[in-house]
Design brief:
The protein is α/β, with parallel strands linked by helices and 764 residues long. It folds into five domains: 2-104, Archaeosine Trna-guanine Transglycosylase, Chain: A, domain 4 (Roll), CATH 2.30.130.40; 238-289, no CATH class; 302-393 and 403-479, P-loop containing nucleotide triphosphate hydrolases (Rossmann fold, 3-Layer(aba) Sandwich), CATH 3.40.50; 485-568, Helicase, Ruva Protein, domain 3; 586-759, Ribosomal Protein S5, domain 2 (2-Layer Sandwich). It is built from 26 helices and 24 strands.
Length: 764
């Protein structure tokens, strides 16, 4: 018995078999030595190298070994002649090869007109398949009409078809000649349909390739003719005629229009599949789509604009006044030129949402572009048209997106742009933001002047010092201050709760949150300048309430103090001063970060000097400016040691530490705080825990003004401080503070460090 992997042998047909497996080689050698008869069985799984009885089909072909030809590589080419269909009744492994007992199967003869019709249909179908490209030997095609035995005809045709082995096995196992021939007719019909589809696809591909080549040769001939005639007045194709009409109808400048028509003529001469043609076509589409003269109608009703701003934002009086001033001037002058505003403030105070409100009050389109992390100049000015995929800059893309030439264009996080080898995007913004230049803004991709003078640009930033000076010079800085607790309460009641209740499928009658609980959230669960964390905490309460209503079918949920702590967990922040008792060498300072104001505790420790020179150790992730303030504080205390205390000289090693060392800290405003901490440790006198201070110190003991005073005093008020020492020159900034803060805080202006030491109790 010889197993075969991927073919089926049929009776009365001669076939060639390449044998390489030891199992089959030994079987053939044994057959040649005896009666030259072998049983050829097909494998169910072609991946098995040494099949067992269950891996083989039961029915195969009893064949005679006609010729055996050993090959140089150890394999054997065998010519077999099929004798009859046979079923293996038993099988065993003997002497390294399989031997099988089998019975010859007799076929049911096909007689009658139905058999003759099937025979003729099969021959016709096979001839059609052969005509569609199926390779069949000519002698087979000649002998087919003369074969009268339907079963033998089915075997011959199946052997010459490219069918799966499992399908051929089904034909082999069919003992009824008529049914075998009927199955074959179905297979031939299916094969003919597949070949016809292949022929159709092949013809279509060849035709398309032929058209492309023909078009290429015609265009090349057209180029030669144009060069000979020295003219470019060639009729456009239908598609390019539409482009030309759109270019002529566009209100773009005349120079740009002429350049675009010249590029269109280049596009007409370029092959349709060339990369250059794709780049030109994309560029022309951009020129047509730009709103060269499209302007939205401004809503110049100052009263209506004031109502919109007041409805959407609480507080921000100075910002609203500035916008209304602009609208009034615009209404009287009729000028399209927009201001360059820059909203500076900590996150969450409403800078971006206020820009949307401005666009709504003006009746203009709103476009927002985030500049955080942008470091490629091409993001602003666009890529040059030198490669496929080049695009205009983000400014031109935004103008095209909104469809008007005078949108409100917000550039978010302008202080977070960076610079690298790909250029300086900050410098690229200068032309767009300069009112004297942006009427002729040039994008590298468009290569034409576009008027941005009607655009109202609004920038946002967290820290004004991080904005490059050339850009800062072109802007009008508007500061967004931190919110007080009262303002946060009003915002939560009037804006956040109605919005979040609606988003979570609740109603104001089913979700009740009082002012006392809102104040608890502000003090114990958030510490921020804006209201983003407050909004997240209220959203958490809404989700918990919605789940309670859904699970327990309660009619409404009223958030009290106990339920508040159950839903939000333990308090995250402590409200009030960090230390209840006065400490020696520990002083509370006020700092300003990009997230608003905060308090820090500066600690100082004095140790006996261990070397000839006093050592100064500074810890707490301090920046260069803060280190310089610390050195100035040490020098001042050492120079005025006798005035601070006469009991001992200042002969110590100093360790100055600012807790939360993982957070980088920098700035000069902690100068007097460090000085008081050193003097307190030197004089062994505690500083009151409810006293905070801010101010820059000089070597001569002068207290210089600092920035961010409003945010710092709000942080002091939030921390429960009672007295705050500030530079005398910062008194003018107190007018921006709410009355509740001024009422609860005692402000102590100073001009000299000695005054600071007296207020803090270090000096008598």
């Amino acid at each position: 018995m010889v197993p075969v992997r991927d073919n089926v042998h049929f009776p009365q047909l001669v076939s060639t078999l390449l044998v390489g497996r030891s199992l089959s080689l030994k079987a053939l050698q044994s057959a040649v030595r005896s009666n030259r008869m072998v049983l050829v069985l097909g494998q169910r799984d072609v991946a098995i190298d040494e099949p067992n009885a269950e891996d083989l089909y039961e029915i195969g072909t009893l064949s005679e070994v006609v010729q055996v030809m050993p090959m140089p590589d150890g394999t054997m080419r065998v010519v077999l002649r099929g004798v009859a269909r046979a079923r293996a009744t038993s099988m065993q492994l003997r002497n390294g090869h399989l031997r099988a007992a089998c019975e010859v199967l007799l076929e049911d003869a096909a007689l009658g007109p139905e058999s003759e019709a099937l025979r003729r249909e099969a021959v016709d179908a096979f001839q059609q398949v052969a005509a569609l490209g199926k390779h069949v030997p000519a002698e087979v095609m000649e002998v087919l009409p003369s074969i009268e035995d339907a079963g033998h005809l089915a075997d011959i045709l199946t052997d010459h078809l490219n069918l799966r082995p499992s399908v051929k096995q089904e034909i082999l196992e069919e003992m009824n000649a008529s049914r075998r021939l009927e199955k074959l007719v179905h297979l031939l019909t299916s094969e003919r349909q597949v070949l016809e589809l292949q022929a159709t696809l092949r013809q279509r591909v060849e035709q398309e390739l032929g058209n492309t080549q023909r078009e290429y040769f015609l265009r090349e001939q057209l180029k030669v003719i144009q060069n000979e005639l020295n003219t470019s007045d060639v009729p456009y194709s239908k598609e390019n005629e539409e482009l030309a009409a759109a270019l002529l109808a566009s209100p773009m400048p005349r120079e740009t229009q002429e350049k675009a028509l010249a590029e269109l003529r280049r596009l007409e001469r370029a092959p349709s599949s060339s990369p250059e043609g794709m780049v030109i076509r994309s560029w022309l589409d951009w020129l047509i789509a730009l709103p060269w003269e499209t302007l939205s109608q401004d809503r110049l009703d100052v009263t209506a604009a004031a109502d919109i701003l007041e409805k959407q934002h609480f507080g921000l009086r100075k910002v609203k006044d500035r916008i209304l001033d602009f609208l009034a001037v615009r209404q009287l002058s009729g000028s399209l030129r927009g201001p360059i505003l820059c909203f500076v403030g900590p996150p969450g105070v409403g800078k971006t949402s206020f820009g949307r409100a401005i666009a709504e009050s003006l009746g203009r389109q709103f476009v927002r572009l985030s500049l955080g992390g942008v470091r490629d100049e091409a993001e602003i000015r666009g890529h040059r048209r030198t490669y496929i995929g080049s695009m205009p800059g983000r400014l031109i893309q935004g103008v095209k997106q909104c469809g008007t030439r005078n949108p409100v264009f917000m550039l978010d996080e302008i202080d977070k742009m960076t610079t690298d080898y790909r250029g300086d995007p900050t410098s690229a913004l200068l032309e767009a933001l300069d009112p004297e230049q942006n009427a002729h803004f040039s994008d590298h991709y468009i290569e034409a002047s576009f008027d941005l003078s009607a655009v109202m640009f609004i920038m946002t930033a967290n820290v004004v010092e991080h904005i490059p000076p050339p850009l800062r010079d072109r802007m009008e800085i508007i500061h967004f201050s931190s919110y007080t607790e009262v303002e946060k309460q009003r915002i939560a009641m009037d804006f956040l709760i109605p919005q979040l209740v609606a988003e979570h499928g609740l109603t104001e009658s089913r979700f009740i949150l009082g002012e006392r609980e809102i104040l608890t959230i502000i003090r114990e669960y958030t510490r921020e300048a804006g209201v983003r964390s407050l909004s997240r905490e209220i959203a958490t309460l809404c989700r918990k309430a919605a789940r309670l209503i859904a699970e327990k079918s309660v009619p409404s949920v009223e958030i009290n103090q106990d339920l508040l702590h159950d839903f939000l967990g333990n308090a995250r922040y402590r409200y009030g001063v960090r230390s209840e008792e006065a400490e020696i060498g520990a002083v509370t300072g006020l700092v300003y970060t990009e997230f608003g104001g905060d308090i820090v505790t500066i600690e100082t420790s004095l140790m006996p000097r261990q070397s000839n020179e006093p050592q100064i150790q500074l810890t707490g992730s301090l920046g260069n400016v803060m280190k310089e303030s610390a050195m100035a504080a040490v020098s001042y205390v050492r120079a005025h040691a006798a005035e601070i205390t006469s009991s001992r000289p200042f002969d110590f090693d100093v360790h100055l530490h600012v807790p939360e060392g993982a957070a980088p800290k920098d700035g000069p405003s902690a100068g007097i705080t460090m000085t008081v901490a050193l003097a307190s440790a030197f004089a062994s006198r505690p500083v009151p825990a409810d006293l905070a201070m801010t101010g820059e110190v000089t070597l001569r003991g002068k207290v210089l003004p600092v920035g961010g005073l409003r945010e710092k005093l709000l942080a002091a008020h939030r921390a429960g401080m009672k007295r705050v020492i500030i530079p005398a020159e910062n008194v003018v900034d107190l007018e921006d503070l709410p009355e509740v803060v001024l009422r609860d805080l005692e402000i102590l202006p100073v001009v000299d460090v000695m005054d600071v030491l007296k207020y803090s109790g270090v000096l008598d």
